[in-house]
């Protein structure tokens, strides 16, 4: 498609990209191109999350029922503890009675089940840094669209290969991860084009709300589709994702000039604050010596560990530690993500208003929000540790609150800050951060499988203790070193630094 030339209102003595925000009319949001992209990003997060996490529940339907905890016990003390738990809470569901819908026919071991959940992240880890730089350099549409369409096609082949060998399923999941790794950096980078600085946090929060909605939907949907045969879940989720990805070809664009439906007013509004793509060398020395960058990366690592544990293993936690039948597991496993969905509404409603306050120190505000939210998350996790398997409603409430507080710390605090520190290199740095944080995606299931050998509540409490430690480290890191100030090297064009700084903090730091 040929690039469209859009006339720009001229102002004497003011370069096109130096036009102050006060001289540019804010166009209406409804029906705008920036809202269209934000909605597409939201739906992309929904389908990406479903493609990634459907297996986390469906694997409980795919594999032949495991022996009960009592039968798994190897010592007298383990047998006694298992017998007491079965007497108090009821025996762990083994595929009978209320769980007749489980028609698993694959003979995989418990360790293989845990390991397969993490194989996705072996591939995801490889492409994240590459995708971030490519999105910064050439625009994000290509990666955004095809990370959905191609991944959906690969996802639908998993039942075929899983029935033939465990190794075949592993290969499919690794390939799926390779493709999925291209999507998130591109989605994040496109917001530097399609969101004005005063709208970025709200738009990002709405878009990443798709993560919560996808996680909220994926487990109940998977539970329902399991009743129709576990293969159905892969075909339905993959088919819907494929259709959506094809539609995005006509809805998402890398550049303002390429968009056929972009109004003149909106073009001027976005153009004056757009971060231009650059072929200049990446300022690696500045990036690698930047304290705010390291704070962002390490905060993301600690935060991602908590996300990984909940998205990968919460169905198994409710099934084993809470002794719930499989049909209830599908519903209650969505509790943390329902809480996250609620917190997204709070973030979207408040952040745009808060960030426009003239005297607000955005760095301090985000630090305080993040630390308080993490402390609340730790409090709720502690509540789960001290609850037993008969207090299922209380545990569900705690899980919902964990999702709300953890998501608020993500969307309303540290995650948008990178677009303020280094908008030109946001895709690159977020890709590196995601790459390092994703290591927990395959290490967590392996480590937890070593801790949770029999599925007892005490074993799962040990897992919860690792979450508490992770959130404490995250609070300390971002609380001390997090920043939302524009770095000197954060934009390729130095003439834009003062005009495009998205907050009211005028200090520019290294």
UniProtKB/TrEMBL annotation:
Cellular localisation: Membrane
UniProt keyword annotation of Transmembrane helix present: yes
Biased segments, Low complexity type: 497-510
Residues annotated as domain Major facilitator superfamily (MFS) profile: 42-486
GO CC, alphabetical: membrane
InterPro entries the UniProt entry points to: MFS, MFS_dom, MFS_Na/Anion_cotransporter, MFS_trans_sf
The keyword Endoplasmic reticulum belongs to this UniProt entry's keyword annotation: no
Signal peptide: none
Record's protein name: Major facilitator superfamily (MFS) profile domain-containing protein
GO biological process entries: monoatomic anion transport
Region (Disordered): 490-510
Keywords, alphabetical: Membrane, Transmembrane, Transmembrane helix
Any GO molecular function: transmembrane transporter activity
Main location: membrane
Transmembrane regions listed in the UniProt entry: 29-51, 114-131, 143-162, 174-191, 203-226, 233-253, 293-314, 335-355, 367-386, 393-415, 427-448, 460-481
Entry-linked PANTHER family: FI19708P1-RELATED, SOLUTE CARRIER FAMILY 17
Membrane-protein topology: Multi-pass membrane protein
Pfam family, one: MFS_1
